[in-house]
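Minutes, structural biology subgroup

Action item carried over from last meeting: produce the structure token record for Nicotinamide riboside transporter PnuC (Sphingobacterium pedocola). EB confirmed the sequence was re-checked against the source entry. Recorded below for completeness.
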Amino acid sequence: MIEHIVTAFQQTSWLERLAVIFGIIQVLLSKNNKVSNYFFGILSVTLSMYVLFGAKLYAEIALNMYYLIMSIYGWWYWTTNKEAKDRPISSCSKKEWQVVGGIVFGGFFLFYFILKGITDSDVPMWDAWVTATAWAGMWLLAKRKIENWILLNISNFFAVPLLIHKDLYLFAALTSFLFIVAIFGFLKWKRIMRLQLN
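Output recorded by EB:
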């Protein structure tokens, strides 16, 4: 098994390796509540889209397009908006949970039917679920809601075996790393929230 992973890593393209490196930098900066996370996120998702196209993970490409849009939005929102710059980390309101539910279930059904109907995807349900839950998590990250880590980890949990299924071992390793970092990100944001109250 380890030999297979080492061989797969050696066959990994430089684009995939760079996408993973930038993705690691992005999530570490995000965990520390740094606005510069968006710059590295933009680099990572741009490279990832090219790699994912070769693997026929079309919903994942759409997810990365969404990441790109939300990264640009998040960067703008955190740097130019005085209110956003000073906005503390907070929890979701009931209304925001309704938006999250709409993004997850609306996105899932939309992607599933598109993937099933007009693409050659062999994993439409799986790909759609990973994408929809990540969409909701990224929306919450831009809003500085602590629950972003929960939604992103639901997506990560299902994404790891999907990426292994597609022989994208480096992306699977990155996603496993992101899963662990998201746990620490949640705990760190929880501490920041407590400090904000003092």
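Discussion: The mean pLDDT is 86.
Next step: EB to file the record with the rest of the batch.
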